[in-house]
UniProtKB/TrEMBL annotation:
Organism of derivation: Mucisphaera calidilacus
Record key words, sorted: Oxidoreductase
Example GO biological process: tyrosine biosynthetic process
Gene: tyrA
Domain Prephenate/arogenate dehydrogenase: 6-286
N-terminal signal peptide: none
Record-linked InterPro entries: 6-PGluconate_DH-like_C_sf, NAD(P)-bd_dom_sf, PDH_C, PDH_N, Preph/Arog_dehydrog, Prephen_DH
Name of the protein: T-protein
Amino acid sequence: MLDGVQKLVIVGTGLLGASLGLALRARGFSGRMVGVARRESVGSEAVKRGCVDEAVLEAGPACADADLVVVATPLGAFEAVFGAITGTDAVVTDVGSTKGSVVRQAEALLGRPERFVGAHPMAGSEKQGPEAAFAELLEGKPCVLTPREGACAEAVALVESLWRCVGMKLVRMDADEHDHKMAVVSHLPHLAAVGLIEQVIEVGGWEVGSTGLRDTTRLASSNPPMRADIVHENRVALAEQLRGYGQRMLRLAELVAGDDYDALLSELESVKARRDAWLEQRERES
């Protein structure tokens, strides 16, 4: 497992970084794991829970002699992290929810950008911090890899091994394709949940809200600074998808107002069948 990796540094010991550490330990990784935390209390919690072996506050010294570095901070901190670890010879990967800006920053700031391989593990929760981490968070989920042109084959192979060994299913695409698709399947659902909560705030109904409201708005409880970073970095693709989603809502509003029962039923049945087929496919592949 991760042959040759004696020291692995996880920069960011929040939910994803801490869960990665737990998953690696659970699957037998025997190397030394160092976590870089923004605050001493967060790092101490990650050590206490066994997510990393030790925690420090500065990325540069920790990564100087690392074999593998995983950047698991919010997107807004990536530029500073890449600048701090510019001198490392380690293979570097990340967990960022957008890839275009991350790849550009890596190319501009890392001393050896050919050893950077972008990654987006498609797993998470509305919860945050090492106290919410668990070893199974990543298992069975997709992980998108976006290796840049000219990336070192050894680095790509090591990053593939990292995510495979914690049970993830690898998908490759370029950074722009990734950001376009994430705008639809990840970033838009969050803002749709935000919009629904805003509607309830305006209209009311909290006292009778139940599982339907809870389940469809789960993402509205996500970490706001983290989500604001994601929206900012993917704003062009996301704005396009928001406009398209708005048009779909207007079309549904016209369908409802027109009281065309047969057309509405057909729409609901078609969407249900497509979603059910997607879930069944995921179940078969798990």
